[in-house]
Amino acid sequence: MEPATVLIISVATVLVAVTAYSVYMSFGPPSKQLADPFDDHED
Predict the structure, then answer these.
(1) CB within 10 Å: which end of the chain, N or C, has fewer?
(2) pTM of the predicted protein model
């Protein structure tokens, strides 16, 4: 494989991994521990 192809595949893999981890942290089981600051200071 050409070095440019390997680089593009590597960057795409990292981007997909970071996106998947962010979605998991936002909507998966760890999201139960997140605090909403607007709910804490609601009138």
Answers:
(1) C
(2) 0.70
